[in-house]
UniProtKB/TrEMBL annotation, chain A:
Residues 258-312 form the CBS domain. Belongs to the ABC transporter superfamily. It comes from the Bacteria. GO terms for molecular function: ATP binding; ATP hydrolysis activity. Keywords: ATP-binding, CBS domain, Nucleotide-binding, Transport. GO terms for biological process: quaternary ammonium group transport. This is ABC transporter ATP-binding protein. InterPro entries: AAA+_ATPase (IPR003593), ABC_transporter-like_ATP-bd (IPR003439), ABC_transporter-like_CS (IPR017871), CBS_dom (IPR000644), CBS_dom_sf (IPR046342), P-loop_NTPase (IPR027417). SMART domains: AAA. Signal peptide: none annotated. Residues 2-236 form the ABC transporter domain. Pfam families: ABC_tran. The lineage of its organism: Bacteria, Pseudomonadati, Pseudomonadota, Alphaproteobacteria, Hyphomicrobiales.
From TrEMBL, chain B:
The keyword Transport applies. Its main location: membrane. It is a multi-pass membrane protein. It comes from Mesorhizobium neociceri. CDD domains: TM_PBP2. Belongs to the binding-protein-dependent transport system permease family. GO terms for biological process: transmembrane transport. Keywords: Membrane, Transmembrane, Transmembrane helix, Transport. Residues 52-233 form the ABC transmembrane type-1 domain. InterPro entries: ABC_transp_perm/SBD, MetI-like, MetI-like_sf. The chain crosses the membrane at residues 51-77, 98-115, 121-147, 168-192, 212-233. It is found in: Cell membrane. This is ABC transporter permease.
């Protein structure tokens, strides 16, 4: 659990982060959204003390984060940044091993951890381990960046626009991979982004920041349904709201009894994708199947439209 | 041009240089027409090989000392604690470069006497600037997100310096050392005006006795050394740049 209590950061007369308090539950994904200059990155960097706060306390599992020297604290917290920041003079395997080496793990343990992470990220350790970062594609570099951040099995992973430099197709894949790994390791992730789409998709909770202040901190449904201010409303995008709301739900939760003609949609697809498919093909209903191809029922345009309405 | 041609030329130059300093007698017929009144065509007051080695030794000592001081200074002024010394150290190193080596020799002789010492002092001061400026450039233009990742991973200041900053700026620092070595190779010749044992001795002897052959052989050996060492260091630099994962222009 991460408790942020009355955190303020001032540079001379400018207040970058203004009295922010929030609690991040363990094993959840918290997304901090805001425009540039909203203080979201500064807030993130105060958690691992790359920036020292002017006032306030941040507690990790009840311990003040100033109870350790900064560099020791940072070794226990994963950190992934935009443009990955891989060390160009180290191989992929050496890059991933950075923090374990700093922590003085023995060679065998480092080697097996590096291989585990590379396999997890679909990079063959034999083929990619000895390569240098510039020999990898952008998507692969990004995966190595996240693998490096996770190498020392941190409980907390801080990510500063980690998908910012990726093209849309690779980005979606990277987001899915991250969510799968988060479930597997139970890591608490705090992710900074300016993309509301990404925030709604990734976050268990979303913190919206504007000019250094925390404007709203709530579940995605809540942010979409009841934006706390005009700023949040703009950020969400008024015309996008119903579709974002649908993108939160799975098709299996919207299944109705009955059958329909045509190609089936998997139950794990988002309700937004189902509606898009219905509208595009001009059909009133779609059959739904589970992973084994077993029919679950159908989804209808009417049913989905009702779900896209503002929650009571 | 074929790719192997430059390598072949370099190899030929090495062979020629080694042959000349070890067996200068072989080349006597070539140089004889440049002399008058039956003067000797090959330097006869000492071995060319010994002079060449002493010349190289002088340059090596001066460059190693200049490298240690310049890189240490550049590291110091790029740390947060040393940042305020940056303008001061810049002007000090610049003064070293503006002072003509001849003037340094003239001033150093009364203090440390004749011989190799005043030459070393002049070469050391003259060699500082290129190394310092390059080290400064290398250490201040490191990619921001790599440095951020190094801090975020929990490296201490020393660990960042040794594991990230110095390796990544090595190619640029090597470039400074290369410039400094080539300048020193040429400048070392004037050390012989204050009795340092360098190849300048051959050139000065030639000038004093109006013997063009001496001047030419001294000058050519220094020139060949400069070209070869410049080439060698460039190759090391390119290799390091590749090793550091940086794309090179050539």
């Amino acid at each position: 659990m991460i408790e942020i209590e009355g955190i303020t950061k001032r540079y001379d007369a400018t207040t970058v982060v203004d009295d922010v308090s929030m609690v991040i539950e363990p094993r959840t994904v918290c997304v901090i959204v805001g425009t540039s200059g909203s203080g979201k990155t500064t807030l993130l960097r105060m958690i691992n003390r790359l920036v020292e706060p002017t006032a306030g306390v941040i507690k990790l599992d009840g311990n003040d984060n100033r109870s350790l020297p900064g560099y020791e604290l940072r070794r226990s917290i994963g950190y992934a940044i935009q443009g990955h920041g891989l060390f160009p003079h180290r191989t992929v395997a050496q890059n991933i091993a950075t923090v374990p080496v700093l922590l003085g793990w023995d060679k065998d343990r480092i080697k097996s951890r590096v291989e585990e992470l590379m396999t997890l990220y679909q990079l063959d350790p034999e083929a990619y381990g000895p390569r240098y970062p510039h020999e990898l594609s952008g998507g692969q570099q990004q995966r190595v960046g996240v693998a490096r951040a996770l190498a020392a099995e941190p409980n907390v992973l801080l990510m500063d626009e980690p998908f910012g430099a990726l093209d849309p197709i690779i980005r979606t894949k990277a987001q899915e991979d991250l969510l799968a790994i988060q479930k597997r390791f139970g890591t608490t992730i705090i992710l900074v982004t300016h993309d509301m789409e990404e925030a709604v998709h990734m976050g268990d909770k979303i913190a919206v920041m504007d000019s250094g202040k925390l404007v709203q901190y709530a579940k995605p449904e809540e942010i979409l349904a009841r934006p706390a201010s005009a700023f949040v409303e703009t950020l969400v995008g008024a015309s996008e709201k119903p579709f974002r709301l649908l993108s939160l739900g799975r098709v299996r939760d919207a299944v109705e009894k009955g059958t329909a003609e045509g190609e089936a949609i998997p139950g794990d697809a988002s309700q937004r994708d189902a509606l898009a498919e219905l509208l595009w093909s001009g059909r009133p209903a779609l059959p739904v199947k589970d992973e084994d191809g077993k029919p679950l029922g159908r989804v209808t345009v009417d049913g989905l439209v009702k779900r896209a309405a503002r929650p009571a | 041009m074929k790719a192997w041609l430059p390598s072949l030329l370099r190899l030929a130059l090495v062979v020629l240089l080694v042959a000349f300093v070890t067996n200068p007698g072989w080349f006597e017929p070539l140089l004889k027409p440049l002399t008058e009144n039956n003067a000797p065509a090959i330097y006869n007051q000492g071995s060319l090989l010994t002079l060449t080695l002493l010349h190289l030794r002088t340059v090596l000592i001066a460059t190693v000392a200049a490298t240690i001081v310049a890189v240490a200074l550049a590291i110091l002024v790029t740390r947060p604690a040393g940042a305020e010394f940056l303008p001061l150290s810049r002007s000090l190193v610049n003064i070293g470069q503006t002072f003509p080596p001849v003037a340094v020799l003239a001033l150093a002789v009364p203090a440390v006497g004749f011989g190799e010492k005043p030459t070393l002092i002049a070469l050391f001061l003259y060699g500082l600037l290129p190394i310092f400026e390059n080290a400064l450039t290398g250490l201040t233009t490191l990619p921001g997100n790599v440095m951020e990742a190094a801090r975020g991973a929990g490296m201490t200041g020393w660990q960042r310096l040794i594991r990230v900053e110095l390796p990544l700026s090595a190619p640029v620092i090597l470039g400074g050392i290369r410039l400094s070595v080539v300048i020193s190779l040429a400048t070392a010749t004037i050390g012989s005006t204050v009795a340092a044992k360098t190849l300048g001795e051959v050139i000065i002897a030639g000038l004093l006795s109006n013997n063009l052959a001496f001047v030419l052989q001294g000058g050519l050996i220094v020139a060949a050394l400069a070209v070869l060492i410049y080439d060698g260091l460039s190759a090391i630099e390119r290799y390091t740049a590749r090793r550091m994962g940086q794309a090179t222009g050539d």
